[in-house]
């Protein structure tokens, strides 16, 4: 049990609480002006110990800069495309702002102000701070919050001050651009890689999944593409791993693609890339997505299509599937989304017509039921 004792100071009598920590070492807290305040602290202390929620004040003196590198290092198990942005967020935003701060000194209002400053910029800063994108802000906040979560787990903090932050910026989703069947084929005909364009537009693969396909991943009899690799370009190098969410899937392709794919696999071994770049290695995404003079940009211009990226053809694939009668679960499986809810969230506009179809079907059903009920009466009247 905690004990309370008084002592004299120049400002008058004060009270000290002495107690045993969970590890049986002795602790104390002094400076209480009244015995009642000291007693309240002692009671709260004993309650926290009994609940296993006790936090040693001295443990909160560790700085974010001491805990951060350990947290970042544990994230190295992630894919390079996920790890590197976290590492950059720590290095560029979190460590410079919070590295020297003891975790126990951080307040929710300070974290909120930092998030706002990152979002809106700060011209008074030296050098001036430019506004950061919602993705950058949320990622930096997530790194700080994750580090402080660990501090809570290690009993360095009782609560995470970052978790009280509200109004995080939201990434503005660009309106989807959907191409028609005619325009997709015009782009394919004008491109150096027609089969790749059509696979992206009709199968909904991500760019990295498509360029990582091997010849052996094509099942001509079942008309399936087996997707279990993903190629990501980071720092000028290609990193090949698993698809997003580490989930492999099998995606059907329409019959008209069969002939093009037969030509694509001809003369290649099962381990050869289905869509290699000019040097025989993986096709580079940066050269295709960002270069105004890339083969894809040239094909768009020749076909009179709007300026999109190869990844945007994934949206067109979703639109084609829905217009062909696919339900949300089928579209989810084709695209490799983690859930049908995610598919609905991303492509809610594509399913608006489904609502109209439901209303029309109800009208038809009710009309049929009413007519059916009226027929006996009509017969009697006849």
UniProtKB/TrEMBL annotation:
Tyr recombinase domain: residues covered: 174-360
Alphabetical UniProt keywords: DNA recombination, DNA-binding
Pfam families recorded: Phage_integrase (PF00589)
Record's keyword annotation contains DNA-binding: yes
Database matches in Gene3D superfamilies: 1.10.150.130, Intergrase catalytic core
Domain of life: Bacteria
Listed GO MF terms: DNA binding
Domain Core-binding (CB): residue ranges: 62-152
Region (Disordered): 15-36
Record's keyword annotation contains DNA-binding: yes
GO biological process: DNA integration; DNA recombination
SUPFAM superfamilies, A to Z: DNA breaking-rejoining enzymes (SSF56349)
Basic and acidic residues bias: start-end ranges: 20-36
Coiled coil (residue ranges): none
Annotated PANTHER family: PHAGE INTEGRASE-RELATED, PROPHAGE INTEGRASE INTD-RELATED
Family classification: Belongs to the 'phage' integrase family.
Protein name as catalogued: Integrase
Lineage of the species this protein comes from: Bacteria, Bacillati, Actinomycetota, Actinomycetes, Micrococcales
């Amino acid at each position: 049990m905690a004990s309370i004792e008084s002592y004299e100071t120049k400002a008058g009598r004060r009270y000290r609480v002495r107690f045993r920590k969970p590890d049986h070492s002795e602790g104390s807290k002094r400076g209480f002006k009244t015995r009642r305040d000291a007693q309240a602290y002692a009671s709260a202390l004993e309650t926290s110990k009994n609940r296993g929620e006790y936090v040693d004040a001295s443990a909160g003196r560790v700085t974010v800069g001491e805990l951060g590198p350990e947290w970042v290092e544990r994230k190295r198990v992630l894919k390079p495309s996920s790890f590197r942005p976290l590492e950059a967020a720590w290095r560029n935003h979190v460590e410079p702002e919070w590295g020297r701060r003891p975790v126990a000194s951080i307040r929710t209002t300070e974290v909120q102000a930092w998030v706002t400053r990152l979002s809106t910029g700060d011209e008074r800063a030296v050098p001036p701070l430019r506004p950061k994108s919602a993705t950058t802000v949320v990622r930096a906040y997530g790194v700080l919050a994750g580090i402080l979560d660990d501090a809570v787990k290690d009993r360095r903090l009782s609560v995470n001050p970052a978790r009280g932050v509200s109004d995080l910026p939201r990434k503005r989703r660009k309106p989807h651009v959907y191409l028609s069947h005619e325009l997709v084929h015009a782009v394919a005909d004008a491109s150096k890689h027609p089969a790749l364009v059509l696979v992206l537009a009709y199968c909904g693969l991500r760019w990295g999944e498509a360029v990582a396909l091997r010849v052996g991943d094509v099942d001509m009899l079942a008309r399936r593409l087996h997707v279990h690799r993903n190629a990501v370009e980071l720092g000028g190098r290609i990193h090949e791993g698993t698809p997003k969410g580490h989930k492999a899937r099998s995606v059907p392709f329409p019959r008209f693609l069969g002939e093009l794919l037969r030509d694509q696999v001809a003369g290649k071994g099962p381990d050869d890339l289905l869509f290699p770049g000019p040097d025989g290695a993986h096709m580079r995404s940066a050269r295709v997505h960002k270069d105004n003079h890339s083969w894809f940009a040239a094909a768009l211009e020749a076909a009179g299509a709007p300026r999109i990226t190869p990844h945007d053809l994934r949206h067109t694939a979703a639109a084609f599937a829905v217009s062909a009668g696919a339900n949300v679960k089928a579209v989810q499986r084709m695209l490799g989304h983690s859930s049908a809810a995610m598919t609905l969230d991303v492509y809610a506009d594509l399913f608006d017509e489904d609502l109209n179809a439901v209303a029309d079907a109800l009208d038809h059903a009710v009309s049929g039921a009413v007519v059916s009920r009226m027929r006996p009466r009509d017969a009697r009247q006849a």
